[in-house]
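Internal ticket #5521
Category: modeling
Description: The requester needs a full-assembly model to guide mutagenesis choices. All entity lines are attached below as received. Residue total reported by intake: 221.
Assigned to: D.W.
Attached entities:
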Amino acid sequence: MPAANPSPPDLPGETSLARALAAIAPYGVHTGCRFIREGDETHLSPEEARSIPARRPAMRRASGAARWIAHRLLADIGIKNVAIPRAPSGAPVWPDGTIGSLAHDDDMAVAAVARIGQIVSLGIDVEPALPLPDDIFALVATGADRMGSAGQRLAGRLLFAAKEAVYKAVYPLDHQVLGYEDIAVDLKADRATTTTGRRVSLVYCTAPRVVVLGYVGGVED
Ligand SMILES: CC(C)(COP(=O)(O)OP(=O)(O)OC[C@H]1O[C@@H](n2cnc3c(N)ncnc32)[C@H](O)[C@@H]1OP(=O)(O)O)[C@@H](O)C(=O)NCCC(=O)NCCS
């Protein structure tokens, strides 16, 4: 007889990305990922669904998948049955005492969650492990950026993901909209600075997807 609650199938790249995220996450930061499935919009609680303006079904599915992960990560740190609505700014609203960040590409959602401690803010981005088109690279990169040793093929994609992760990490602290030109990423030193004076530490993986996690606070080297 089949199990009443069979485990979800291990969809492409989910397990290996989960391992890669766990390997890069700073101490105290919980991470997870979910291959976006049909029906994932049903994981939005009523409060969350109300907070997310009507958008394309694929986007609601992605937001549901990201919250599915985040609800579980919060439960892991003892916080259950809470909503993570969207503020009018777009930023997710985390339960008191916690911080986190969500992201999704066309296929995969990711989330990071922590209790507020030495780390005071988190930002995450996920991208396919494909070269960034030249026209987008031209929009994103400035002379202040330093590329690392991630390999030429994915360097632009990593830079793009880093700027998005940094933006998500600093927005909840400063409530300022930043452009790409306001964020200088140093992929050799694994950190970024913003024109608003924030320093953000970076960790990342490039397989099976590009994921960058940015965090403010923690132990400075
Ligand atoms: C935040 C932003 C960069 C996200 O980019 P995206 O490619 O649309 O989407 P992602 O999948 O990477 O991330 C979406 C998640 O970001 C989070 N997010 C949105 N706005 C946010 C903000 N101001 N602060 C922190 N997190 C935010 C939300 O959790 C959202 O998930 P949800 O829609 O399920 O709630 C974009 O929505 C935005 O606000 N851009 C304006 C500023 C900008 O583009 N500057 C240049 C880049 S630095």
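Resolution: model delivered.
Comment from assignee: Residues 1-5 have pLDDT under 50 and may be disordered.
Ticket closed.
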